[in-house]
Amino acid sequence: MTMNHTSMANVLEAAEEYYDYYKEEQNIQLCSNTNIHAFSQVFLPTIYSIVFIMGFVGNALVLCVLVKYHQRSNVTDVCLFNLALSDLLFLISLPFWAHYAAVSEWSFGSFMCHMVTALYMLGFYGSIFFMILMTLDRYSVIVHAHNSLFSKYRSVRASIAVAMFMWALSLGASLPTIIFSQVINDSNVLMCKEEYPEETFLLLFSYIEMNLLGLIIPLSVMVFCYSRIIPILMAMKSQKRHKAVKLVLVLVIVFFLFWTPYNIVLFMKFLRQFGYMASCQWEENLNMATQWVETLAFSHCCLNPIIYAFVGQKFRNSILKIFKQWFPICFGRCSIIVSEISERRSSMYSNSSVVSSTKIV
């Protein structure tokens, strides 16, 4: 036992020495990111504010419609509700990150560092997991429509249980980042970031986890399910099948375009930990690219209400009802204006038809 402990200690010490030597050999050095910080102080607060306002309004409307008008909830409503809720959790964290980017210092304390990181990560993984759940639900309804097994377990109680399981998965995937996020005093500047005890393992694991759960797995599920759904929709005789197929293609393409650049940059940062792209120019380029691709990925939560909810006719009618109740004066005037315009168009059309008929005579 003594020899085993001694040999293990020697192995760990040799591995640590090799890692330090490897970093020196690869010339991984601390680089100045003054230009990046100056750019992010203006760019990130502006973009985060726009995404927060647009996403908060859209997802809040989805929650209001589902709570107010959908008394008999189904599986789709449960998925939509949790998708909008996860997007709202994610969006609540953006004002804190915007302030953090604007002043280049964390001003909210250690507890809020953990809390804001928890909102950010839970919303991030929750949004992706519930998109996967909605895809699987559509797959089971369309592809296995005649299978009694799927219809038996497609109840509201079962969907709520599955939703709770998805939230548990989101919490499990978020825990490492939440736990190791802390306020650090870096050159008399307070920063809220992840500080892993063993950077060689946990940091690399976080990059791999983001790539797998954030892009590879959800995109694979969407491609597989919708590749089976589209032929069935095309075989239907309904006139709305082309609209349904277009919506399916939009779902996959939008998810791919918005999340792939973000995951590519994460993978490049993963490679940087092994000594590739170790120059300061590469670090500056990756930091600049991170800001752009993060903004693109974050804005996807603004599109979720449009893609999943507002496309449906019933959902749009419910939103109009809410607007008429909240803003009766505005919508009353708008309805009067619309009716007057329609009457003028109809009268102009009738007059032009009379004039043309007299000319013909």
TrEMBL record:
Residues 58-308 form the G-protein coupled receptors family 1 profile domain. It is a multi-pass membrane protein. InterPro entries: CCR1-9-like (IPR050119), Chemokine_rcpt (IPR000355), CXCR4/ACKR2 (IPR001277), GPCR_Rhodpsn (IPR000276), GPCR_Rhodpsn_7TM (IPR017452). PROSITE patterns: G_PROTEIN_RECEP_F1_1, G_PROTEIN_RECEP_F1_2. The chain crosses the membrane at residues 47-67, 79-98, 118-139, 160-184, 204-226, 247-271. It comes from the Eukaryota. This is G-protein coupled receptors family 1 profile domain-containing protein.
